[in-house]
Each structure stands twice: as C-alpha cells, then as structure tokens.
C-alpha cells in the first residue's frame, strides 16, 4: 500500500480539480481515474489514468499499478434534470460502477473511501434535513445515490467509509485549472452569481409547482 497515493474517481471534474490542489499541497499524490483528461497544466503534476468505473479490468489495473491508500469516489452521472427516462445508463454508471469500485478496493486491500453522495437522496423534504432524516429520492439520480450509500454500508467489514451528502457546491479558487466541462457547470447558485456579475441578465426557474 502506498500511503501517499489517493485515487480520485471522476477526478477531472469541478470537485476533483479542487481536491487535486488540496492533496498536492498536503504532499499526497493524486491518481485520477476518469473518462475525461484533466487540463494540460494539471496533468504535469498528477497521474492520470483514462477509464470508466464500469470497466472492472481498468479499475483493477489502476489499483494494481498505484496501490492507493484510499479512494475519493466522485465518478457519477450527476445531472438530476433529464435523469428520468435515462435510468438504465445512470444505474449502470452510478450503481454498478460504484459496486465495481468497492469490489476492486476489497481485492486490493484498499481500506478507506470518501463517497460523494447528494442532497437528492432526501427528495422533496418538507422540514430541515439531517443525517437521520428520511430518505425519499424522487429522481433516478437520487435513487442511485441512496443505493450507493446502502452498498457502502454492506462493505463495513472491509472498508472504512465517510459519505458526504452534498447540496449546492459552489465557489472556485482562481488558481485551480478547470476542465471545459467543469467550467460550464449549470447550477442555480452559479447562474445567480453570474447575474450579479452582469454576465447574465436573469435567473430562470423552471417549473411552476415548487413551493419556493
């Protein structure tokens, strides 16, 4: 086991780009496993392995080659809108892919994982949510994240885990290079900020049945 190496699945995205910066400052070596490459300037200081978490062989190769001490699991299809009707792809990627990551960790005796879940597991909550709150996801995306959490618990004899239910992750360190897809994240708070910066003229809220 290499105690300086951390595997980041989906590490070329928005959160992954900032994690790379934090890990390198802590003298750790990030290994990025993603279907998309990070920016050129980032690739000079990280190890990038192209691959998808649906590919068991590719995952095993990364673990065998780099022997990471732990995993930060970011790889998922994240768009809530449009997830209805595209359930098969989302399920294969988010659920089966995460199961592949967990199984590969066990095979290679990697004991630690930080998993990025989502506030989507709560669905349309009517009261302030807590970790002990009822999980009633209404989207396929939210249901996959709920299943991921359940699957991780099943591995508790082999893996130490921390699950983060992320809400609206925003902000950016200007010193952190982002991939093109990360630069064009379409989020409510991001759009609101761009209106304040006069880069956009209005924030559009779609749908008329929300009590907001």
Describe the structure.
The protein has 212 residues and is of the alpha/beta class. Helices cover 36% and strands 18% of the residues. The chain has a 6-stranded parallel beta sheet with strand order 3-2-1-4-5-6, sandwiched between helices. Helix 3 packs parallel to helix 4 (87-107) and helix 4 (87-107) packs parallel to helix 5 (140-154). The longest helix has 21 residues, at 87-107. The radius of gyration is 18 Å and the shape is globular. The mean pLDDT is 86.
Chain-wise SSE layout:
Elements: E1 2-9, H1 14-25, E2 29-34, H2 40-43, E3 47-50, H3 56-66, E4 68-73, H4 87-107, E5 112-118, H5 140-154, E6 160-166, H6 180-183, H7 188-196
Parallel strand pairs: 1-2, 1-4, 2-3, 4-5, 5-6
Oligomer: single chain
Strand sequence of the main sheet, in spatial order? 3-2-1-4-5-6
Number of helices: 7
* Helix and strand run: EHEHEHEHEHEHH
> Quick one: how many beta strands?
6
Structural class from helices and strands?
A: alpha/beta
Q: Tell me about the largest β-sheet.
A: 6 strands, parallel
What separation lies between the terminal Cα atoms?
Answer: 49 Å
How much helical structure, as a percent, in the residues? 25-40%
Shape, per Cα inertia axes: globular
Mean pLDDT: 86
């Amino acid at each position: 086991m290499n105690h300086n190496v951390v595997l980041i699945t989906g590490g070329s995205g928005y959160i992954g780009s900032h994690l790379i910066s934090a890990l390198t400052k802590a003298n750790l070596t990030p290994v990025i496993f993603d279907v998309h490459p990070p920016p050129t300037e980032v690739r000079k200081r990280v190890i990038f392995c192209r691959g998808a978490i649906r590919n068991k062989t590719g995952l095993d190769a990364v673990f065998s080659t780099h022997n990471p001490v732990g995993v930060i699991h970011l790889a998922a299809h994240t768009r809530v809108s449009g997830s209805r009707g595209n359930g098969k792809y989302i399920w294969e990627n988010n659920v089966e892919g995460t199961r592949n990551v967990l199984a590969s960790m066990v095979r290679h005796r990697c004991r630690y994982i930080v998993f990025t879940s989502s506030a989507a597991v709560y669905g349309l909550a009517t009261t302030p949510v807590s970790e002990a709150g009822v999980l009633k996801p209404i989207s396929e995306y939210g249901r996959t994240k709920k299943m991921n959490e359940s699957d991780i618990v099943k591995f508790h004899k082999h893996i130490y885990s921390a699950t983060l239910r992320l809400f609206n992750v925003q902000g950016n360190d200007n010193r952190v290079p982002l991939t093109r897809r990360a630069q064009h994240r379409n989020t409510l708070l991001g759009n609101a900020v761009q209106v304040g910066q006069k880069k956009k003229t209005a924030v559009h809220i779609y749908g008329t049945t929300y009590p907001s």
